[in-house]
Amino acid sequence: MSRxxxxxxxxxxxxxxxxxxxxxxxPTPGDGEVMVRVHYMSxxxxxxxxxxxxxxxxxxxPVGGLMEGGSVGEVIASNSPAFxxxxxAFGPFGWATHGVAPAKQCRKVDPDQAPITTxxxxxxxxxxxxxxxxxxxxxxxxxxxxxxxxxxGPVGSMVGQIAKARGLRAVGIAGGADKCALATDHFGFDxxxxxxxxxxxxxxxxxxxxxxxxxxxIYFENVGGKVLDAVLPLMNAHGRIPLCGMIAWYNxxxxxxxxxxxxxxxxxxxxxxxxxxxxxxxFIISNHWxxxxxxxxxxxxxxxxxxxKVQEDITEGLENAPQAFIDMLTGGNTGKAMVKxx
Length: 342
Ligand code: NDP
Description:
- By secondary structure, the protein is an alpha/beta fold.
- The chain has helices at residues 46-50, 125-138, 154-165, 177-185, 201-211, 225-231, 257-262, 266-275, 292-304, 321-329, and strands at 2-6, 19-23, 33-42, 71-78, 88-91, 98-102, 107-108, 145-149, 169-174, 191-194, 216-220, 235-243, 279-282, 312-316, 336-340.
- Helix content is 28%, strand content 24%.
- α5 crosses α6.
- It is globular.
- The termini are close together.
- Bound molecules: NADPH dihydro-nicotinamide-adenine-dinucleotide phosphate.
- Residues 14-339 form the Enoyl reductase (ER) domain.
- This is NADP-dependent oxidoreductase.
């Protein structure tokens, strides 16, 4: 089997040198474990954090260790009554052609409901993230205005589509004219603003002001950086900010650099939260898996029948995973980033 390990820790943006492709014996499942041959492997922004040796909500990948990640494939061997060979399973199998994991950390995927690739995106962790946080922390109400960046990604596109279905005005922010067209034409956003066409937070804010004549009630935070700076002054009183991610700052190793450049300071942030009575809720989706069955029973059929639209960006070959991952962090993906392994 082949696998990709963390060769070294990145200093800023990751480079191909931070990864190494290795061969290894095919693993055998222990008691209660399953072994799969991976078909598709997910590439997600959180993996950037795992490459750093910094305190976070999850342990770092050790140097020389298998890159972490979720993937979907066919069960080859099972020592658990929950799976039989031939089943399709999603689990934490890492960046590899084959993987072993405890059956209780895996879930069966129904290939008749939707293509199995959706278990990595719209019907997987990212789609669930958008659904969960919009309902739980966004508390959407008909007629309100929602803004979300990374609007064509698996989180942002789920947020926008649910917002529209709930009768909100959904304003997307995305990188480039093609992605903006995808956001409005495919995913149904009312408007999408190209953040690359607005060099400063001030310019971006002017475009947002026009797109949001009634202000912003929900800012679903995926990116931080210039977008957050642009959005903040436009938040309506009692607005909600589900704090999902801040990808603009992931390579900075922490808060600060972009914020200083953009003039976004802690005092201004706190003052805005206070005077606008904002609710800001950080969350980590892995603490909320108890809600996943509810999500799948509600959203699964909607993805299956095409009511909820999907966009996937599939790179061929495990060996190309590092570059695809590096590209995804700066917007090189159009839709859910994943790698076709077999
Ligand atoms: P995407 O597939 O949308 O990929 C990331 C996108 O971020 C890029 O395509 C790019 O889109 C955008 N981006 C990158 N840099 C910047 C920047 N400087 N300014 C604005 N946009 C930028 O990612 P996901 O949908 O998988 O994830 C979205 C966010 O949700 C991430 O921050 C992720 O970490 C977070 N997340 C958090 C979870 C939690 O538990 N809290 C769980 C899952 C995801 P574009 O080209 O359009 O700008």
